[in-house]
């Protein structure tokens, strides 16, 4: 998604007091779905009952594209906010194939921008209020979990490389999940 596309949403929708776009009553919302990869595993996160949708379902890091700023900045913000993952342990960011999901159960169309973030080291995961649990799994195991609607398709699309960026910084971290 380009900044001009996000700006179009910004121009049409209400804002929160802090200036972010409020998608609460919008039937359409652009989001990032960020898969975290370390070696041959990806991280799944169980959604808490404090989030607006999909309580108790397994997901990954996600967030509304609710500010007119580069998508990479939003990815880094969500990783830090939801899991305390810092940019210096990121080896690679791969932007996958965009897709649209119409979820009739909640009357929302999601414009999903899947991303695969590969880490240099296994991090110490610190969950925020949005999640209650986490598990490192092999990608082919995703169907064994009670996942948010079509998360498996987002994973497939995250693996279809659109373009990528790398980060060559070093870090030493620990792992807790």
Structure write-up:
This protein has three helices and nine strands. Strands 1, 2, 3, 4, 5, 6, 7, 8 and 9 form a nine-stranded mixed sheet that branches. Strand 1 and strand 2 form a beta hairpin. The protein has helices at 3-12, 71-83, 151-158; strands at residues 28-38, 41-47, 58-59, 61-64, 90-95, 99-103, 108-119, 131-137, 163-166. The chain has one domain (3-13, 27-166): Nucleoside Triphosphate Pyrophosphohydrolase (Alpha-Beta Complex). Helices cover 18% and strands 33% of the residues. The model is unreliable at 168-177 (pLDDT under 50). The radius of gyration is 16 Å and the shape is globular.
For the structure shown, list the relevant keywords.
single chain, 177 residues, alpha+beta, Nucleoside Triphosphate Pyrophosphohydrolase, 9-stranded mixed sheet, 3 helices, 18% helix, 33% strand, globular, disordered C terminus
User: Residue ranges: pLDDT <50 for 5 or more in a row?
Assistant: 168-177
Mean pLDDT across residues: 87
Main sheet overview: 9 strands, mixed
Shape: globular
Reconstruct the topology from this structure.
Elements: H1 3-12, E1 28-38, E2 41-47, E3 58-59, E4 61-64, H2 71-83, E5 90-95, E6 99-103, E7 108-119, E8 131-137, H3 151-158, E9 163-166
Parallel strand pairs: 1-7
Antiparallel strand pairs: 1-2, 1-4, 2-3, 2-8, 5-7, 5-9, 6-7
């Amino acid at each position: 998604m380009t900044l001009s596309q996000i700006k179009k949403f910004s121009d049409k929708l209400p804002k929160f007091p802090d200036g972010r776009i409020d998608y609460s009553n919008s039937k359409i919302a652009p989001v990032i779905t960020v898969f975290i990869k370390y070696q041959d595993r990806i991280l799944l996160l169980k959604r808490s009952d404090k989030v607006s949708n999909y309580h108790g379902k397994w997901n990954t890091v996600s967030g509304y594209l609710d500010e007119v700023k580069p998508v990479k900045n939003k990815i880094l913000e969500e990783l830090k906010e939801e899991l305390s993952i810092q940019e210096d342990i990121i080896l690679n960011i791969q932007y996958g194939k965009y897709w649209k999901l119409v979820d009739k159960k909640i009357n929302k169309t999601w414009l999903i921008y899947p991303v695969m973030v590969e880490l240099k080291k296994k991090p110490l995961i610190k969950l925020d209020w949005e999640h209650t649990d986490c598990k490192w799994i092999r990608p082919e195991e995703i169907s064994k979990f009670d996942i948010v609607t079509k998360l498996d398709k987002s994973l497939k699309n995250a693996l279809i490389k659109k373009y990528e960026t790398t980060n060559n910084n070093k870090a030493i971290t620990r792992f807790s999940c």
